[in-house]
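Here we describe the complex-level prediction in full. Unlike the single-chain runs in Section 2.1, the two entities below were treated as one system.
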Amino acid sequence: MAKAITPRHVDYAEWYNDLVIRGGLADYSAVRGCMIIKPLGYALWENMRAVLDRMFKETGHVNAYFPLFIPKSFLSREAQHVEGFAKECAVVTHHRLKLADDGSGVVVDPEAKLEEELIVRPTSETIIWHTYRDWIQSYRDLPLLINQWANVVRWELRTRPFLRTAEFLWQEGHTAHATRQEAIAEAERMLDVYARFAEEYMAMPVVRGIKTPSERFAGAEETYCIEALMQDGKALQAGTSHFLGQNFAKAFDVTFLDQNNQRQYVWATSWGVSTRLIGALVMTHSDDDGLVLPPRLAPLQVVIITIPTVEEPQMTVALQIADALRQLGISVEIDTDDTKRAGFKFAEYELRGVPVRIAIGKRDVEHGTVEIARRDTKEKVTISSESAPDYVRALLEEIQRSLLDRAKRFVAANTHYVDTFEDFERILEERGGFVMAHWDGTAQTEALIKERTKATIRCIPLNAEPEEGRCIVTGKPSHRRVLFARAY
RNA sequence: CGGGGUGUAGCGCAGCCCGGUUAGCGCACCUGCUUUGGGAGCAGGGGGUCGUGUGUUCGAAUCACACCACCCCGACCA
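The structure predicted for the assembly as a whole is:
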């Protein structure tokens, strides 16, 4: 495979596409805006899903599955919700094809028109709350803590692999609570789960915050989010958790009797992360040589390459080390393909982001050593083969830590505090990144800034220190800075 | 949905302007030999409805018209 990744400094968007395609994460498909997730990309998703699923269960949630199709009428029950999603819905109108009269293929059978059209879910609040009406009668039925792993379809005008596809995989949690406070606590708890996942597993630092009203989820009272900063200085919303108030309970008439025999509407949350996280992972760590995957999510953590491949002594050492690594719970493969040379394999595994590579050649066998290379820094060391397993175990932890540290330093170095609109514009043009600035709290000012700079308020950070200041546009008083950035 | 671009072998491209043998090149692929510690060398070989349709012409990858698809940029959105 020829080296053909566009360097980041030449064209970041092209670099990203090259990496996704050439790195083996995904392919374009026959359907516009829909991608084929290839084994490496899917393995990454499986690893993410496994960790998140465990975290959801540890916080008391259970999985269920609701239908792909939603009756059209459901969408219109919650006014804001339908407004938010109506423009990007795939609609099923018929249920049968037939052979064309002129023999040119198949056509939709006009006789098979559906009584009520079905919407391919863009998200499942409506069908789930329609169901919750039957499931919830009493305070004893609450809280109801359900998650589903599913695909959804949003007919986006502009798509990008993983970051925005017409169909994507995600999880959506939908919970029902007896009180406002409990629902808010749930939304915050799940935001915390997402933030911990991002930092501890993806090695991706995030800012936790709440969205402004104009950036809120359609139908939510409050939208919590985690925002990450990509290498090109653009922000990426990596996960959202919504406090839905009683909006869906009222729209679908979901009530319960409390301890005092009072009929009350249920309080709701929903929260989700998607395959977009794979895009976030790529744009946080990878480099011009290919993917860089954090050890805790990498489908393959260690690859062993013997040089030459077929020589017995090298293979003996390789098998011993592989066995020892597996005992330590580390995933490892020995590349036994003797039709490719070592140099080719080195480049190939670097492209695919395998965190650690062990090379064993004749020289090594003679000296009782192996060469260990780490993907993130490309540093190599030669150490005794007996100490290799322990060294690799420590190295994987070190890489995981180092990736997070490096990403944190990047965010710190690219978070700017500005107090004038001139500085605000200049920073966005010259550097990009997160920009912390004072804002007067109005939607008008927010829209004006967006129109003039393409930057949006990514969030009002939860950990923001109170600070008196003046809005960079109107000069009106402000009590804290908010996080601006141009975003994906 | 606006702007731009591209459709020729699995991938990347040339050929098109100025129509004319059997449509080329690189990578990849197959066979053989030599190689093997950073994307091997040599030799031989296989693979094509030139995006689709209609038209012009003795003749179309090449000219005209229409259509389709995809990519990039923007507006909208996870």
